[in-house]
């Protein structure tokens, strides 16, 4: 599956400054990770630090799937609002999931500091705003639920938002959010792990797996085989190719990045933004004084149809930006399309789809893919060692 159109911002910025070989011989390992994006990189970091022997492969260049198309907003908020998630999954699971997301942002910062990554991680506030009167009761219900659940949130009125240059009716301000360069972080994580023994192969496409004498053998397109005790699939939306259970509805999403501004507006220095519309839009600044806006989601049909809509979506996102921030001049510099997915409850899927096979999945669908992947680090070892963990129950297959 082609996960994104070609001209995404992050790879162009870095011009692929690291290259890895493809696999050209058979090998054995303790754990095989399939997928070399940010999720696979985080799983490798966890498992290598646990003393495991790990191989990671990707059918593309490392971090050139969904990671390259991510706008990388790090929020504890989930695509399904807290008060709605309580109805879907119960109070304990819903509140724990939001708390897990908040903790994940701080955990990721600790990882960034530990590996000394130059991924431009910055803490921000999160502004969740509404522009239509019909959405105000929804936003008020969400604010009330978060307050009652102990989250540090502030209600912002229209005049508060006007000070930020935002044309909207009201908003919830959350104190904990962040932004990051996901492409740089994935490369830095894998580079760190490689020095500790991780073997990395890109342009290595796994086409089939089978069990043999209690182990799993993965065959590549060029007829090499990797024998492992466990396989961890970090294949994101391409997991639809290997999973029997339907767990996600695929969507096409779009993003544009501005030219570098002389000075980034204060609002974007301190906060990220997203709204209550369906589909929602999301906005962030970058360290080189650009603004990124994403959204315009459509049902995913195929990459060609998705990419054909890009000129139309550029104009849609430009208009939305101009309505929300009328005093900021946005000159388009980059635009791209990507594929993402929505689950029925907005939550990820971790663990074994089949309890009798040593095949584990880490699938952080939706707008919180990076924070979900950080959360998965807490339970991946339990999944491999067949131990119980609360997250493996919250985010299990077949739920």
| Intertermini distance | 26 Å
Count the beta strands.
17
Structural class: alpha/beta
Tell me about the largest β-sheet.
9 strands, mixed
Radius of gyration: 21 Å
Q: What features would you highlight for this structure?
A:
single chain; 399 residues; alpha/beta; nine-stranded mixed β-sheet; eight-stranded mixed β-sheet; 17 strands
What do these coordinates show?
The structure is a single chain. By secondary structure, this protein is an alpha/beta fold. It contains 14 helices and 17 strands. It has helices spanning about 10-15, 40-50, 65-70, 80-90, 90-115, 135-150, 160, 180-195, 265-270, 305-310, 310-325, 370-375, 380-385, 390-395; strands spanning about 25-35, 55, 75, 120-130, 155, 170-180, 200, 205-210, 215-220, 225-235, 250-260, 270-275, 280-285, 290-300, 330-340, 350, 360-365. The model has no long low-confidence stretch (mean pLDDT about 95).
Quick structural gist:
With 399 residues, the protein is of the alpha/beta class.
């Amino acid at each position: 599956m082609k996960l994104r159109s070609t001209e995404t911002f992050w790879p162009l910025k870095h011009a692929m400054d690291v290259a890895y070989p493809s696999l050209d011989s058979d090998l054995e390992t303790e754990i095989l990770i399939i997928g070399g994006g940010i999720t696979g990189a985080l799983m490798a970091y966890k498992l290598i630090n646990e003393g495991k022997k790990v191989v990671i492969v990707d059918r593309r260049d490392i971090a050139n799937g969904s990671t390259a198309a991510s706008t990388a907003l790090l929020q504890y908020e989930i695509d399904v609002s807290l008060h709605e998630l309580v109805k879907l999954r119960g109070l304990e699971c819903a509140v724990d999931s939001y708390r897990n997301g908040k903790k994940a942002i701080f955990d990721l910062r600790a990882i960034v500091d530990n590996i000394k990554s130059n991924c431009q991680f910055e803490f921000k506030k999160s502004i969740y705003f509404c522009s239509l009167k019909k959405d105000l009761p929804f936003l008020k219900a969400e604010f009330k639920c978060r307050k009652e659940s102990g989250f540090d949130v502030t209600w912002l009125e229209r005049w508060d938002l006007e000070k930020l240059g935002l044309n909207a009716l009201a908003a919830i301000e959350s104190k904990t959010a962040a932004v990051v360069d996901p492409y740089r972080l994935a490369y830095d994580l894998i580079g760190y792990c490689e020095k500790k023994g991780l073997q990395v192969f890109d342009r290595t496409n796994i086409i089939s797996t089978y069990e043999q004498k209690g182990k799993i053998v993965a065959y590549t397109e060029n007829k090499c085989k990797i024998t492992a005790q466990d396989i961890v699939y970090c294949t994101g939306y391409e997991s639809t190719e290997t999973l029997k259970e339907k767990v996600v509805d695929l969507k096409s999403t779009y993003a544009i990045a501005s030219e570098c501004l002389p000075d980034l507006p204060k609002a974007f220095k301190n906060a990220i933004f997203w709204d209550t519309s369906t589909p929602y839009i999301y906005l962030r600044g970058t360290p080189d004084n650009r603004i990124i806006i994403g959204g315009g989601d459509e049902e995913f049909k195929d990459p060609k149809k998705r990419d054909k809509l890009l000129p139309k979506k550029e104009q849609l996102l430009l208009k939305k930006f101009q309505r929300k921030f009328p005093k900021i001049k946005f000159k388009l510099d980059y635009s791209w399309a990507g594929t993402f997915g929505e689950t029925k409850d907005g939550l990820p899927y971790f663990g074994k789809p089949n309890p009798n096979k040593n095949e584990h999945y880490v699938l952080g669908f939706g707008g919180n893919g990076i924070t979900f992947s950080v959360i998965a680090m807490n339970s991946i070892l339990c999944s491999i060692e067949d131990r119980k963990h609360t997250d493996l129950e919250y985010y299990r297959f077949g739920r």
